[in-house]
Amino acid sequence: MPARFAELDWRETPMGEISLRRRHDPTVDRDVYEVKLGDEFLMSSLFTVAEEELARLALDAVRADTDAVPADLDVVVGGLGLGYTATTVLDYSSVRSLIVVDAIDAVIDWHRRGLVPAGLRLAADPRCQLLHGDFFALAGQPAGLDPVEPGRRFHAIIVDIDHSPRHLLHPGHADFYQPAGLRQLAAHLHPGGVFALWSNDPPEDEFVAGLADVFATARAEVVSFANPLQGGTSANTVYLATVA
Hints:
Blueprint: E1 5-13, E2 16-25, E3 30-37, E4 40-44, H1 49-64, E5 73-78, H2 84-90, E6 95-102, H3 105-112, H4 119-124, E7 128-132, H5 135-139, E8 154-159, H6 179-186, E9 189-199, H7 205-214, E10 217-227, E11 232-242
Helix pairs in contact: 1-2, 6-7
């Protein structure tokens, strides 16, 4: 029988100590994978609905504008995590290429070694490239998010890194959420392309207004999901913005 708890990896990173652990949760009677940064929980395989909906909402918004995009979509995901957003992107046969950018090489290594359930699928899919890099730094440069093809544009850029536009993992990320940072991001999207952002907090009207100043359309979607630990429901926010 597998151990009820196992620490699968632990590393020092520039952002602090990061660890991957697996535990058997009796509430749902299955193994749960969790990532911690220091003493803070970053993600859990117990709650993946919003991460998956983040990808679905983004790609469905792109596909709705059939006059603006081809059938073969090029997508970037900022933040690999446990891989649920990226694998949902690859569920779409219309996706031609996917670049997943993560600043912590240990997270990429977990996937390549198959330490997390989604890992081997992502590593084996020829459409998917796992890129070790600072998403925010790349998004702020004219060369953009593909080091092989500078200046390349994408049909969707999907981001799940910080807890919210105001609750950041690192203060250096703050400029990305300001108008200048959002304009730099928009320059990496095709006309009709979509920017999607996950947030753990309720919708912020101020941030939606900031998106609307840069993009042609902007809105916030609340994604609710069952929370077996609390015996009710929880909710995350997905922000969606479209280039003119």
